[in-house]
Structures are given as structure tokens and as C-alpha cells.
Amino acid sequence: MCYRQIRGCVMRSQVRLPDPIAAVFITEQLADRQTAAPDFLREKLAIQNLAEMMSDHPDEVLPRLVKLGMEICGAHSAGISIFEPEVGQFRWHALAGELATFEGATTPRNFSPCGVCLDLAQPILMEHPERAYDWIRDAGITVPEVLLVPLTMKGAEAIGTLWLVAADTGHFNQEHARVMAELSAFTGMALRTVQTAQRLKLAVQQQETLMREMSHRIKNLFSVADSMVRMTARNAATKEELAETLSGRLHALAQANGLIRRSFGSDVAAVASLSDLVERILRPHERQPSVLEGPDLVIGEQAVNHLALIFHELATNASKYGALSHEGGRVTVTWATEAERLRMEWTESGACGVDAPKTTGFGTKLVETTIERIGGEIERDWRREGLRVRISLPLKSLRS
Predict the structure, then answer these.
(1) Which CATH number among 3.40.50.720, 2.40.50.1070, 3.30.420.10, 3.30.565.10 corresponds to the domain 236-398?
(2) Which ranges carry the Signal transduction histidine kinase HWE region domain (predicted)?
């Protein structure tokens, strides 16, 4: 019978286990064995020792708990079994005594003494568990008696067990179980404190990284804005044209950067969605909703700035001269990836015929220069029903 099948039969007040596991489960004997008077001073000193270890060497807390358990209980071997839920097994850590050579070994969650201990959430005692668990017997391990205590972090499920092995049967008693339960509970709190401190340290590191990244982004934005002002000023005939053109481009840049979000644990420091970017740029120009079709793509900060300027210029021209200047006009933007390149298509419809301009304006030059700078290509097709633009960009240019 699989242990998973019998877990529902295990109750704290009444243990009902199938043979042969019931034959090795002797927890009820703890209460009947002779017990020495509690040594509260020794217990206090042990807790103080664990506290000092937690403060100075948190990585040594579990090994210290194991050694204290061996000293207090007179065990010949001891260790910690930490449950790994992703693989459904325990892994042995901090082993000491005769079983130290099995450091790092794994045991099944659903067929092991440790599994029973976690299910009952209390100390348990077993005699010669190798009679019930063939993996113990197959490893050549003899366990006269083993005391297991759940290792629990406050506010969370048990993360594993502390186990102590005696050289002879009839060794452990109820006082051993009580003291080790107290020390294990304290160790659980210590581990939770260490875990909280580690999370806090990570959060501070992430905050510092974010601040450095924000500083870098601000410098980049000022650089882009400065270049934009200079280029727009050289090509504007009047101050009104300068103000209108520059305001539109800055607004597009601001809208695009509003989409950028931090992505910790990624090679891309700041990311945005291509579909969100195009939708945000087109929104102020639409007479009716545009059609956007393509896979969900994540783009980096520099790519956001480049694509924002490209789509802003296309949308502005469509609003002044193309499809978006007519009541029934609309824009369809599609994109797909192929052979390490992003291929985008801008298609205007309902434009009632637009001829190719006789001269190239600054906005067109800006689009072409931006695309060429990142290794891309652009083609324009001036059709009677509206302009069609095909843009090809290397995928690697989207990641920065």
C-alpha cells in the first residue's frame, strides 16, 4: 500500500498505520519510559548557543542544532531532512555521527519516517524502521531507534525534520522529545529571521539597482530630447511649427516611456510591450480604432524610444495627409518574427489616393535615420487606397 494512500488514516490522537509500518511505530512508548528531571539550565544554554550562531554564522544554525541534539539525547547519529516540494522528496543536510557519509542523500516524501512526522506535526519514535522501509534496508543502514521532530518556521508549514538515531532500542524518552521540540521550534524562528533578513538585503540591492537604472534612463531621455530639439529647430520654418512638431515628438516619447517597467532577474533591465506601445502612439490620432495584429513582444528601453519616434512620425503624417485625415480612414499595423528579424507592416486604408511627396521631409528623414541606425530597412508603397510601409529590424535591436 502506497504511503500516499494511508496519509488520510493518520490522526494526531489515534495513529492507524498498515503493517508493517505500524510494527515499527512506537511513539506511545515515550510516555512510559523513565525520564530524568528536566535540565532547564542546559536547555537555556542550548537556546542561547543557537541564538549566537544565528547572529554570527546563520549558515551554521542547522549543523549546531544537530550537534546539540546528539549531546542532549546521547544519539550516535543525527541530521536534518529538508523537504523539496518541487521533486517530492527529502534531502539530508548537516549529518553528524555514523551516518555522516550519507550527506546530501534523498528519501521519498510519501514513504519515509520523515513523511509520517510531517503529517502528524509532532515528535514521533520508530524502532528498526528498516523493517518497513526497504530503501533504508537496501542502503545497509541499521536504525535501532529514531526520534523525529518536525522543523517548522513560524507562519509556514514544516520545512523538514530533525532526526536522531540511538545505538540501542529503548533509548529515547519523552523529555528528549520535549527538549528537541523546543530547540527545533526556536531554530525554525531563527531560520525565518534569517530568511527575512535575506529578503530585505535582496530588496535593498534591487532598489539600488533601480536607482542606478533610473539615473541612466533620465540621462538617455535628456540626450534624446536634446537631439530632437536641435534637429527640429534646423528644419522648422516658424516658431509655431517648431513648437507643434517638437511638442508632438516629446509627447510620443513621454507616452512610450510611460510603458517601461522594471523587470528584475532578467537580462533586459526595462521592458515594454510592442502592442501597448503602438496602441499608445496611435490613440490620439484615431478616428476609429486601428487594427493591431502580431505576437506579444517585449522590447527594451532604447528600442522603445526608437519605435516611439518611428510610429509617431507615421501617425502624424497619416493624420495630416493620409488615411487618418479622412473620416473613414484607418490604419492596420501587423508584425511577425522571421529569421531573427522583426517584420512590421503599416497599412493605411480609406485615404482616397495619396501621391508620393516630391521632396523628403524631416520626419521622413528622421524615420529612415532611426531605422538605419539600428540595422533596419524600410520600404514605402504609395498606393491609391493608402500608404503601405514595410519595416524590417533585427530582433537583437529590440532587447536593448
Answers:
(1) 3.30.565.10
(2) 213-296
SS3 assignment for 76-143: CEEEEEEEECCCCEEEEEEEEECCHHHCCCEEECCCCHHHHHHHHCCCEEEECHHHCCHHHHHCCCCC
List of long-range contacts for 379-386, beta carbons under 8 Å, 24+ apart: 380/356, 382/354, 382/355, 382/356, 384/353, 385/348, 385/349, 385/350, 385/351, 385/353, 386/322, 386/323, 386/329, 386/347, 386/348, 386/349, 386/350, 386/351, 386/354
pLDDT band of residue 126 (cuts 50, 70, 90) is: very high
Q: Match 550527506 to its residue by C-alpha cell.
A: 103
* 3-199 CATH, one of 3.40.50.300, 2.40.10.10, 3.30.450.40, 1.20.1600.10: 3.30.450.40
Q: How far apart are CA 66 and CA 155, in angstroms?
A: 23
Identity of the amino acid at 296: D
pLDDT in tens, 209-226: 556 655 655 665 566 566
pTM of the model: 0.48
Tens digits of residue pLDDT in 168-219: 999 999 999 999 888 888 777 766 665 666 666 666 666 665 566 556 556 6
